[in-house]
Amino acid sequence: MSTITDADLTMLLEEAASSYDVPEHGPDEIVAAVEDQPVPLPIVRRRWVQLAAAAVVVAGAAFAVSQQGTSSPSTRATAAERSLAGLKADAPALAAPGTAVTDQSSKSFATDATGTHNLAGSGTVAGTASGGVGGSASGAVGASGGGAAALSAPVPAAAAARAAQPLAPTAVRAPAAAGQVTAPVGGDDADSRVVKTGSIALVVKDGKVTVTLTAVEREAKQQGGYIASGNTEEYGATPSGEVTIRVPVAHFETLVTAVRGLDAKVRTASTSGRDVTAQYSDLQAQLRTLTATRERFYLILTKTTTIGEILTVQQRIDDVSGQIDRIQGQRKLLADQSDLSTLTVSVSEAVDPVVKATTKPRSGISQAFHDAWDGFVSGVESIIARSGRALLVLICIGLLLLIARGGWRVARRRMV
Amino acid sequence: MAMDEAAELDDWLRQDYARAYRTACLVLRNSADAEDAVQEAFLRVWRFRDAIPDGAGRSAWLYRVVVNACISSVRASTSRSGKDDGADALEGLADMAPEPALRAEQSVLAATIEAAMAELPDHLRIPLILRFYAGLSEKEIATAIDRRPGTVKSRLYDARQRLAQDPRLAAWVHTDDVLEASR
């Protein structure tokens, strides 16, 4: 059974870890954050001091509750406002502009600092206000806010440093993930891969189907595309045609705009985009891994000495090669779909509007006469239609009679 | 901050930052989140350095806080993305694929290991990283993940067995085994 030694594991993990570059600014940011931290209160371990502190807290809470029972609603509201004012005063310190704060309570403060000053939406603050315990409650929240500030202080520093870095690829890919194909993705960003498809149905005047299709083909060529398939029905009651165009993804929107600008009415139009960047990167990574694995097996193959060894290693190589071929196929398909977008344009002539019936509905007797007349006419038509066959039969019978008669006369003369 | 404290902090960072950062990267597979987690871990340990029990190394506690910070990071991100359904936050670690830019820069071997490691459950993966990358002893790992040393030993064994059976790693570490198996 195969085993991995400690040395193997250490080597593998060292290799994996070495792919992560250690940020040079990391230790400096920690030192800066430590210097910004408030000096922690010393932990007093003496039992009597802790008990005294607990007694003060309990007494303060009891006093606050008693005050709540005797104070008027307006007084309670004032106490809540005081507590909110204290929190608002802390808000800018916790959420300075341009910093990202991950703590949930800090987020609510940030909203307050930059928004409508309505703290009722924050769970923490709403609880404080409705509790109506005035100064003691405000102090408690203030303490927790301070703790949050101390713990989350390093986060804004790192986040701000990252925020200063260019975020263009992410910002570009985000709308594509949301299906907004009009965003500048795909060909505009070498790292992004977006599969774009669309269809447009045009309605043209009589006799303009071919002309319009020719114009569509011309626009496609101008945008660097080509006609992947097409079919037309140029005669008959409803001439129509459809072409499927492959065009570089960067020119997709331009082509859509150009087609919509032709001398035709757009009956329906739809476009869609699918971001396949991550999928493509995955395939590339798998391909690199498998290729390296195969190279490794080739190296092992050179060390083989018996037929059995060769066959075993060759089998491994064949397996890996099969996987490589499969992934290469997937990657090629994905690359093709994301390099060239697909637009289907169908063109048809406008159909005459249906003529509405203008005759009034007939009464019963009138309808009966009408039906009788229709029956008479259809009977005459039927007789006329079948008369040809009857005439043929009559002619045949006449000919037979003539032949019979001639034969009879000849026979009678001989008998006489 | 006093001069001696500043020097102590500087020494500590020079000694442990890089390895702690890369440990967090291996756990989270996301460099940005790892940077935040390690920063928070250093601050916490530094702040409460006097409260670390006697006999326990600062590094073990640092990695304990690093692992907790990583879990908190995953929990926060899953909560932000609305995927937190109350399940163990560790389950989310396996779902965090490394960013494409990083994957492109990774060596082939590193990518292979990452892929193999990604299939390990986190309760096996984290002890493995702490043992064979961070260099912690089994006792220190037990402190770091808050489990008994026997549990750590068992998990390390399971993790090693699973990696040994991974075909992707066979070409890198089982060269002799491949040949031996064919005989």
Give the SSE layout.
The complex is a heterodimer of chains A (416) and B (183).
Chain A: H1 6-18, H2 25-36, H3 47-70, H4 73-94, H5 104-114, H6 123-131, H7 134-152, H8 154-163, H9 168-177, E1 194-204, H10 209-222, E2 226-233, E3 240-248, H11 252-260, E4 265-275, H12 277-302, H13 307-339, E5 340-349, H14 364-415
Parallel strand pairs in A: 1-5
Antiparallel strand pairs in A: 1-4, 2-3, 3-5
Chain B: H1 3-28, H2 31-47, H3 58-80, H4 100-105, H5 108-118, H6 122-132, H7 138-145, H8 149-164, H9 167-173, H10 175-182
List keywords for this structure.
heterodimer, A: 416 residues, alpha+beta, five-stranded mixed sheet, 12% strand, elongated, B: 183 residues, mainly alpha, globular
Structure, explained:
The complex is a heterodimer of chains A (416) and B (183). Chain A has 416 residues and is α+β, with helices and mostly antiparallel strands. Helices cover 63% and strands 12% of the residues of chain A. Chain A is elongated. Chain A starts with 5 loop residues before the first helix and ends with a helix. By secondary structure, chain B is mainly alpha-helical. Chain B has helices at residues 3-28, 31-47, 58-80, 100-105, 108-118, 122-132, 138-145, 149-164, 167-173, 175-182. The relative contact order of chain B is 0.11. Residues 82-96 of chain B have low confidence and may be disordered. The chains are: A alpha+beta (416), B mainly alpha (183). At the A-B interface, α1, α2, α8, α12 and α13 of A face α1, α2, α4, α5 and α6 of B.
